[in-house]
């Protein structure tokens, strides 16, 4: 019998390196980023409804739209329209990724819907094809289709996997504020921003060189978001003081993450930050296709 439902894991993303070399004529930034997925994830349950035309979305989060503004809804609609499919879709999202935090939660939910419906509707699309469709929804969706360490360029649609990360653990802290990505992107002054050595991070990961990787990491948007959200710099300084080898904001913020190869150190930093930060997590890099490396 034809399969009608599927559940997909939708991991959060972090930016190990983020730069924007220039702005396109239509106003969108050109991106040059190293992105990774982590094992803090939403779970997206997708059911196809042959006797309906409706797309419905429900979530366990009171803050999220459940209509066409939800990126998971948009993913189902875009894929259905592309392939002229006459079925309804029911989507239920167990939300764990903080919203509007720079961790790509909405984009990952959308990517999970694309992957799931690709299977349920037997479309046989490759990741590259799904990524191209995903760009119609949001610039982070193409990466989230892959959810493995990758160099991401173009408007977000060129995703080049770069192989596994050196073993490491990550502590994530989300300040209470949420940040609107478009409001940060509007404030980029291309004459003034500091560019990142994104190629240096890629080379270090490919060489398995953790020490080199941590010296090259950085996020061009951090200074812009931190002007209005000074907690970002306070958390970053605490992470570095407590012994993280690198600490920086993810995406357009305000989430800050720190990394170390020592699990015990990450656990200590988690304990120290819990009294100070709204939400704190310990996570491990995640690769959608493979088992992740866990430090004991
Ligand atoms: P970006 O990918 O732009 O960096 P983000 O990670 O900072 O985004 P998200 O959690 O994806 O933030 O939410 C961004 C906006 O998308 C919010 O305003 C939210 O209401 C909306 N949104 C729509 N659908 C979803 C969804 N399924 N999950 C989370 N947010 C969603």
From TrEMBL:
The active site is at residues 13, 140. Its EC number is 2.7.1.148. ATP binds at residues 98-108. It is an enzyme of class 2 (transferase). Pathway: Isoprenoid biosynthesis; isopentenyl diphosphate biosynthesis via DXP pathway; isopentenyl diphosphate from 1-deoxy-D-xylulose 5-phosphate: step 3/6. GO terms for biological process: isopentenyl diphosphate biosynthetic process, methylerythritol 4-phosphate pathway; terpenoid biosynthetic process. Residues 203-277 form the GHMP kinase C-terminal domain. This is 4-diphosphocytidyl-2-C-methyl-D-erythritol kinase. The gene is ispE.
């Amino acid at each position: 019998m034809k399969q009608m439902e599927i559940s997909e894991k939708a991991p959060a993303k972090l930016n190990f390196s983020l730069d924007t070399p220039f702005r396109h004529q239509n106003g969108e930034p050109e991106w040059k980023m190293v992105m990774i997925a982590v094992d803090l994830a939403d779970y997206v349950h997708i059911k196809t409804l042959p006797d309906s035309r409706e797309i419905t979305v429900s979530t366990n989060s009171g803050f999220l739209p459940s209509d066409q503004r939800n990126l998971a809804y948009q993913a189902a609609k875009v894929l259905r329209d592309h392939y002229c499919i006459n079925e309804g879709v029911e989507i239920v999202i167990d939300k764990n990724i903080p919203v509007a935090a720079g961790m790509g939660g909405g984009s990952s939910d959308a990517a999970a819907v694309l992957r799931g419906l690709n299977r349920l509707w037997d479309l046989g699309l490759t990741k590259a094809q799904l990524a191209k469709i995903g760009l119609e929804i949001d610039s982070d969706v193409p990466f989230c289709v892959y959810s493995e360490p990758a160099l991401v360029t173009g408007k977000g649609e060129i995703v080049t996997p770069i192989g596994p990360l050196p073993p490491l653990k990550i502590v994530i802290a989300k300040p209470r504020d949420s940040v609107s990505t478009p409001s940060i992107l509007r404030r980029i002054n291309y004459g003034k921003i500091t560019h990142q050595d994104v190629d240096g991070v890629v080379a270090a990961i490919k060489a398995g060189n953790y020490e080199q990787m941590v010296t090259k990491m950085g996020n061009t948007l951090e200074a812009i978001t931190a002007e209005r959200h000074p907690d970002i710099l306070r958390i970053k300084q605490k992470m570095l003081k407590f012994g993280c080898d690198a600490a920086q904001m993810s995406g357009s913020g305000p989430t800050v993450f720190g990394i170390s190869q020592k699990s015990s150190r990450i656990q200590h930093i988690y304990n120290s930050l819990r009294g100070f930060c709204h939400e704190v997590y310990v996570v491990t890099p995640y690769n959608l296709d493979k088992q992740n490396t866990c430090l004991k």
